[in-house]
Amino acid sequence: MKYVLIGNGVATIGAIEGIRKHDRQGRIVAIGSEASAPYGRPLISYLLAGKISPDQLALRPDEFYRKSDVELRLGTTVSAIDCAARTVTTSTGEKIDYDRLLVSTGGKPFTPPIRGADGPDVYNFTNLDHAQTMISLAKDIQKAVVVGGGLIGLKAAESLFDRGVEVSILELSPRILSLAFDANAARLAARRLDEVGLSVHCGVTAQHIDRDAAGRVRGVKCTDGTYIPTEIVVIAIGVVPNTDLAEAAGLRVDRGIVVDDLMRTSDENVFAAGDVAQAKDLLHDENRVVPIWTNAYSQGYCAGKNMASRATPYIGGLAMNSISFYGLPTISVGTVNPPEGEEGYDVEASLDERKQTYRKLVFHDNRLVGYVLVGDIDQAGLYTSFIKFQLNLTPEMRQSLSQGHPDVLLWPDRFFDDTWNPNWVDKD
Amino acid sequence: MKRVYPNREYCIGCHLCELACITAHSESGDLIIAYTQEREAAGLSPCKKIFQKGSECVAISCRHCDDPSCVAACISGALHKDPETGETVYDRGKCVGCWSCLMACPYGAIRRHPVESKIVKCDLCRGREEGPACVQACPNQALKYEDRDE
Fold first, then answer.
1. How many CB atoms lie within 10 A of CB A320?
2. Could you tell me which chain B residue has the CA closest to the CA of A305?
3. B90 in Cβ contact with B108 (< 8 Å)
4. Which CATH architecture has domain A122-237?
5. How close A119 comes to chain B (CA, Å)?
6. How far apart are CA B142 and CA A18, in angstroms?
7. Buried-most residue among A65, A127, A271, A362 (CB within 10 A)?
8. A262 touches chain B (CB under 8 A)
9. DSSP assignment of A28-55, as one string?
10. What is the pLDDT of residues B18-48, one digit of tens each?
11. Which pLDDT does position B150 carry in this prediction?
12. What is residue A179's predicted lDDT score, i.e. its pLDDT?
């Protein structure tokens, strides 16, 4: 069996570990277009902030690839997949054949049409190259505008700020972090950023990027009429699935590459995982693209097992983010903003402005389906358990959760014993 | 592989497992110094968590899951599964303190280090000849260190 993995992200690591769990013999070729082996992509903000060095980026040590018997083909871009012939072609024209293929081409930065966006001094922030570019830029610039107040945008802004750059953040929504957070959590995070000295502008975005006669950026005209002088613009609105290769190969693509419960695409020998895949969601009865780190690994891992012919259904993705803003930790999991107008949702929230702590739990039909924690995050995992294991809540369980006391002893007895003390035999 | 299995019917919530845990993970190797000095000065914390509900108690720690959520969530490569031993291994040097594992672990088995941006997680007392200290210290056999793989 020969496995070919396309992609340079954590889904590839998951796939290698999934394959090798069941197949020690088959050949694995991992092809990545970036120069580095799979690295912790979210770490690029730590690198830009100067908190870690480049040698700390690798997700697995070099010996991992040797021990796992993986042929790493870095700096190599796949330009075509031929599903019928079961080959991939690289940009240098080389053909590599496969028995099973994984497409984990990830996401590509989404850039909305902004007048003046084409040209120098406008950047994205999704890979190591971008981070390295910005590290060298930061020495010479005083001002930056970041378009996008989501997770990527805020981390880019914070890291540039840590390098001594004066940063303004533009967010079109009425609040930052509108996807992962609710209004209270966003306000606490915004306050922390504000205290530190980052300038956050909500409800506005860049209308046009103003350039001088030489074509260099000199400012951003915002939709509310304000003008912010700047030397660079970082567009960090988010990513969209990088489906070009899959579409050209004739694989079924909706918003992302559509996969079944075994992470298999419309071609039986081709699997997909990570930010490019449209896969089962734990909480919603439909396939979704959920570009979340944890899901990417889990999907890759699951795909790997299935590629090695160990039928393993994917349990479904769950959106989750853990991120800190200058020492203020925040975690959000699952459905944090109940869809408007839908019945059956119930929210319990507890906000302490003085301590800067916040807890919001979202219930649906007798189950916990989401939560947000700000400040005090230590119980996060146990809240996650109630969502992930889809435990039905008794009034007692619900009350304990609402009071901030998730507890393994609240689990149903049978489930508890199967989890913690399975196959118990009293030998004494 | 051998894992630590807690039994809620035998646990009396005495916290001796926690004391054994911090002693085993201390610099001094001495319970009194670990408790009175290292806890305060270095943030020495147990890998165990004890839950109590009415008369029922249990002391839990990392399950070293077959398919660990923490490894999936780790953004820095600080957590990985050792394919040979089956342990879920934590590399403190690689950890950046993002708390993703703490969010993803549905067993509540990971805690924040009180002083540093690092986590605290059971390592099965790696290298300790007698095996996990918590199991050895448990006065009521509420913790067992056994291979129950099927």
1. 26
2. B67
3. no
4. 3-Layer(bba) Sandwich (3.50)
5. 32
6. 34
7. A271
8. no
9. EEEE-SSSSSSB-TTHHHHHHTTSS-GG
10. 999 999 999 999 999 999 999 999 999 999 9
11. 77
12. 85
Report the C-alpha gap between A138 and A143 in whole angstroms.
9
Structure tokens at A47: 């690198």
Class of domain A2-42+57-108+240-307: alpha beta
Identify the segments of chain A with pLDDT beneath 50: none
Q: Answer yes or no: are the C-beta atoms of A415 and B107 closer than 8 Å.
A: no
Q: What is the pLDDT of residues B54-108, one digit of tens each?
A: 899 999 999 999 999 999 999 999 999 999 999 999 999 999 999 999 999 999 9
Q: Which residues, including other chains, have CB under 8 Å from residue B135's CB and lie 6 or more apart?
A: B4, B17, B143, B144, B145
CB contact under 8 A, B99 and A408: no
DSSP state of A410: G
Same fold, A122-237 and A327-420: no
Note the helical H segments in A176-215. Answer: 183-196
Amino acid at site A66: R
Nearest CB partner across the interface for B100, out of A46, A322, A417: A322
Same domain, B52 and B79: no
For chain A, how far is it from start to end, CA to CA, in angstroms? 48
- Residue B150 is assigned to a structural domain of this protein: no
Q: Say which amino acid occupies B127.
A: G
